[in-house]
Structures are given as structure tokens and as C-alpha cells.
Amino acid sequence: MRARAALVPLMVLILTAGCVVEEPLDDDGGPGPAPTATEVSADADGTDSPEEFTRDIEAAQEVAEEYWGQRLGAGFSPVRQLIAYEQEGDVACAQEPLPRNNAVYCSAGDFIAYDVNWAYAAFRQIGDAFLFYLLGHEYAHGIQARLGIRKQFTIEQELQADCMAGAFIGDKAREGRLRMQDDDTRELADGLEAVGDQPGQPWFAEGSHGTAEQRMDAFAGGYQNSLESCGL
Questions:
Q1: What are 21's strand-pairing partners?
Q2: pLDDT at 32 over 90
Q3: CA distances, 5 to each of 23, 35, 114, 224 (Å)
Q4: Where are the beta strands (DSSP E) in 125-190?
Q5: pLDDT tens digits for 52-68?
Q6: What contacts 24+ positions apart, CB below 8 Å, involve 54-59?
Q7: Cβ distance 7 to 106 under 8 Å?
Q8: Are 69 and 76 within 8 A, CB to CB?
């Protein structure tokens, strides 16, 4: 099981919020199938509906599967299941109950599980970009499992997942599958100061995710330079 997805790259996505799934083209260059997500407001005004949340998280899953299918080819198998839960203990990974306010990839069951109330609250406050990061980070842990990547320290595993999430979003934006919008870099800097590991957290400690600067650097490296920055 992987530790929870910290919100540092979430602040990166405030810089480029929000992720909107672009309508693909068919073979004739015309409109393809209807998009699986619609553009939603990133304003914290309570207008983002549960229906929009559901569409956007399904779209994030779809684009993540599309991305890794393209990168890994015929041998790729999607993460088996995406599970929303509401209470601690609703879902367990290797017999360990998952807590609230959390999102994990469980290698034992090959599923991603997330506290739907926590995710929805963040979605309303920050926007749909949160969901693309959330799925991107946890899906990266699923890819690590498929590739047999097991780092010595938690922080190495987490920073690589941040980088892979950045590559997923950046590559899909360059491809035109996601549309990104600029936002206030000051908000990014203020957020990063608050959400990294606490000062004094040992680099080698179990559960370490990295300082705000480390996580920002990892995500930005993937976003700008794709998977080459992630050691893949």
C-alpha cells in the first residue's frame, strides 16, 4: 500500500488549473465521441456539483489509462478498480483499514481507493485539477508496481510518483488532450510552504513524501520533460 497523496503538486495544478478533457478527433479530423468531462469552475463557491465531480474523476481515470496504455503498449493492464469510500474501515488493503482523508494505491488488490468526501471537498475548493493530480499520482504507484519498481525509501517512491503524475498531465496537455489555464504563481508559492513534510522530518523515515520544494521539483520535472525526468 502506498501512503496518502500529499497536496504539494495540487498547488502546482493551481498554477495550471483546470484540467479539461478536450474532445478527440475522429479519423476524418472531425469531432469524435462526446467528451467524458466538462469544464468546471475552480472557484470555492460551492457550485461544483457531485455530478461534475463524478464526470471529472471518471475522465481523469480514462485519460490516465489512455496515457499509460500508450506508453507501455500491449503489455499494459489498467488498475483493476477505482473505489470511493466514506468511512474509515469501509475499504481495507491487505487487511489494513484505510483511514479517512486519504487516497492510496493498494498493490495487494490492484485498486485505487479514495475518501470521496475529502476528495469532493478539495474538488470544490480547488477545482478539477485536483482530481487529475490525485488519479495521476496514485496511478503512478500502480505503474511502479507493474514495472517492479520498489525504491529503498518511501520518499523516493513518492517523488517518482509525483514526477510521473507531472509527466502524465504535461504530456497530455502538449498532446492537446488536456487544456491547461494559468493561475497565480503567488498562490502556488504560499501553498507549497504549507503542505510539504514538516521541518525535521527525516529523509529516510517511513512515510516521508518530501519537502514542498522537493515535491514541486519532482512534479515540475515530469511536467516539463516527461518521463525522462522520472528515471523511466
A1: 178
A2: no
A3: 29, 27, 10, 21
A4: 178-179
A5: 999 999 999 999 999 99
A6: 56/123, 56/128, 56/131, 57/82, 57/119, 57/131, 57/135, 59/21, 59/35
A7: no
A8: yes
